[in-house]
Specification:
Shape: elongated
Largest sheet: 3 strands, antiparallel
Number of domains: 2
Number of helices: 5
CATH architecture of the largest domain: 3-Layer(aba) Sandwich
Radius of gyration: 22 Å
Number of strands: 5
């Protein structure tokens, strides 16, 4: 089954597709519903005016562009999540206050953190990100050695 049909049938708001991007299923369902209603009722999918041509969904190119702009973000990529986290933190490192250029997961993916969750992301400068990564690697290494010794 392809990701489009699977996302229309799910009850979850976000559907993760091969760890590359995530689909906002509510927007996708709205997108499919609006297009279907416009086709059945012979009305413009954006403004709702009556259409004479059965094949058309929009009355003009302006309505088509507006509709596509409204529903353009049902596929969310890591780049968008990263930008939202940086913008939320005002492009400053939450640890030291310097300019942040990197985004880090608060709960690592290996420990069950969600990859495409803005609330699981924090803006960090390069130095703070390296320190946090090294600390997490050391903790993971010590956890593995404790598991082997038991």
């Amino acid at each position: 089954m392809n990701w489009f049909l699977e996302s229309l049938q799910t009850n979850e708001q976000f559907l993760e597709v091969r760890r590359r991007f995530v689909i906002d299923t509510e927007k996708l369902k709205g997108y499919a519903r609006f297009k279907q209603l416009a086709h059945v009722n012979r009305t413009c999918g954006f403004c709702g005016t009556q259409l004479q041509d059965k094949r058309k969904i929009f009355c003009d190119s302006r309505c088509r562009r507006s509709f596509n702009r409204r529903f353009s973000y049902f596929v969310v990529t890591w780049r968008q999540i990263r930008y939202r986290a940086l913008r939320r933190d005002r492009w400053t490192c939450i640890k030291c206050g310097r300019r942040a250029r990197q985004v880090d997961h608060i709960i690592p993916l290996a420990l069950g953190g969600r990859e495409f969750d803005v609330d699981n992301c924090q803006s960090l400068c390069r130095e703070c990100h390296m320190r946090k990564t090294i600390r997490e690697m050391q903790e993971r290494r010590s956890r593995k050695t404790r598991e082997r010794s038991n």
